[in-house]
Design a protein that fits this description.
Layout (H helix, E strand, L loop, with lengths): L2 H9 L6 H12 L5 H14 L3 H12 L15 E5 L7 H10 L5 E5 L9 H5 L11 H11 L1 E5 L6 H12 L6 H14 L4 E8 L8 H17 L3 E8 L7 E3 L1 H11 L5 H17 L6 H13 L2 H12 L18 E6 L4 E6 L1 H11 L15 E4 L6 E2 L4 E7 L5 H10 E4 L9 E5 L1
Parallel strand pairs: 1-4, 2-3, 4-5
Antiparallel strand pairs: 5-13, 6-9, 7-11, 8-10, 8-12, 9-11
Length: about 425
């Protein structure tokens, strides 16, 4: 088997066999196939696409390139959740205690952020003492006993995907649906889940800007799950503005507390309940979505959800007092108000711009080596559809930095104000099963 022939085959639009895909992936990981040939192969995939079977085989090749987590000693159906990423996306932290409160095991592996803001792990580490490095026995004990645990992803999970993603990033082949889908699903399969709910973001702050593209990606990932005997559902959700009111790390934890205390923003509460309800059905707690939704909503209203979050913090070494005293979370020295330059209604908020502004304030990373400032972030005081007067505060920047002119300008430009009130925002577009 020669790499030249396989590149030619894919360039001509022919279907590669499982053996041929395994040869490509294992050869690249072992250093037997050079970057320039893999780059050419990725470009051929970008233009020619892949069949469902090819995508499934590519996913499996990624999975078997490294560690595969064994969760068989955890009782029950392990349901995982994945988001394609957005600004202010704290849904994972809301659904962990919610789903666990139903007795469904949530054994979650999450990563750190690279870009706009921190990842789920970074956000949790803004809580004093919270540990995300658990050994396997403690991780499994926590899930079996409390139905929830979270750890950082193992370094050897899908190493082929990590290596190929780095190459995609510099060869203009990131936005290929077969490559995106296999990358995401390989990590979920390798993490040992039995069922998967995918939160596919759509809009200005998402990777997929249109509903059609997001639906194509969602269907591709659901097909992969089905082909690999994993129950999989994808939910298309709105990311045309940041989710909720908070962007950052410590301030997103504060907002998680608000949502679970029945004081959260409507958009993220609705999306979190939707994702959690689908997880409840896949996990076998309920037969239908509506019943699960009603019960989970009640758990937020009666205080059970926030008490479960306190327990979650405590069992991982964090200080649960932050729930009742969020001022214990890291606080920034500077709070800069951005004012509206005209009166009217907020018609759009460019989520990506808000994310970039937050990163410039210290809330995110440009490179893997950058240190995150947990206190940095942005509070949106106005959302799409809200009325605003000239000179009124539309957002507040939180930072420990002295020079924030660029971040201020980007944040202000993210808002669009018009005299005409926009149509109501839809939070969940559709469900793909």
């Amino acid at each position: 088997m020669r790499m030249y022939d396989l590149i030619l085959k894919k360039r001509n639009g022919e279907e590669l066999t499982k053996e041929e895909i395994d040869f490509i992936i294992s050869g690249y990981v072992q250093g037997e196939i050079p970057d320039y040939q893999i780059s050419t192969f990725l470009m051929a995939v970008y233009f020619r696409g892949m069949t469902k079977q090819e995508i499934s085989n590519l996913t499996l090749s990624f999975v078997h390139s490294g560690d595969v987590v064994d969760l068989s000693s955890i009782e029950g159906i392990k349901v995982d959740k994945h988001s394609t990423g957005g600004v202010g996306d704290k849904i994972s932290l809301i659904i962990i205690p919610l789903v666990a409160s139903l007795g469904i095991p949530v054994a979650k592996m999450s990563g750190r952020g690279l870009g706009h803001t921190g990842g789920t792990i970074d956000k949790l580490e803004s809580i004093e003492g919270f540990r995300t490095e658990l050994d396997s026995s403690e991780f499994i004990h926590n899930v079996n006993t409390y139905k929830m645990a979270i750890v950082g992803q193992t370094a050897n999970l899908t190493p082929a995907d990590k290596k190929i993603y780095a190459l995609r990033d510099v060869t203009a082949t990131v936005d290929s649906i077969p490559l995106i889908a296999s990358s995401i699903m390989s990590k979920k399969i390798a993490s040992g889940s039995d069922a998967i709910v995918l939160d596919v973001k759509v809009g200005s702050g998402a990777f997929m800007k249109s509903i059609d593209d997001a639906e194509e990606l969602a269907r591709t990932m659901v097909d992969i799950g089905k082909s690999l005997n994993r129950k999989t559902i994808a939910v298309l959700t709105n990311m045309d503005q940041p989710l909720g009111h908070e962007v950052g790390n410590a301030n997103e934890i504060k907002e998680v507390i608000d949502v679970l205390s029945n004081k959260g923003a409507e958009d993220e509460t609705t999306i979190a309940l939707t994702i959690a309800s689908h997880m409840a059905v896949l996990g076998g707690a309920y037969n239908d979505f509506d019943s699960a939704f009603r019960v989970l909503k009640a758990k937020i209203e009666n205080g059970e959800a926030i008490n479960k979050f306190k327990e979650f913090i405590k069992i991982q070494g964090g200080n649960p007092e932050v729930v009742d005293h969020p001022e214990l979370l890291p606080q920034a020295k500077h709070h800069i108000e951005i004012k509206a330059s005209s009166s009217g209604y907020i018609t759009s908020i460019n989520a990506e711009s808000i994310g970039i502004s937050a990163m410039l304030l210290g809330a995110g990373r440009r490179t893997k080596e950058d240190k995150i400032d947990f206190a940095a972030g942005i509070t949106l005081t106005k959302k799409i559809g809200d009325k605003v007067d000239v000179g009124e505060t539309i957002c507040v920047l939180h930072t420990n930095l002295e020079n924030t002119n660029e971040a201020q300008n980007i944040a202000k430009e993210a808002f669009r104000i018009s005299e005409e009130k926009p149509a109501p925002v839809k939070y969940v577009y559709k469900v793909i099963q």
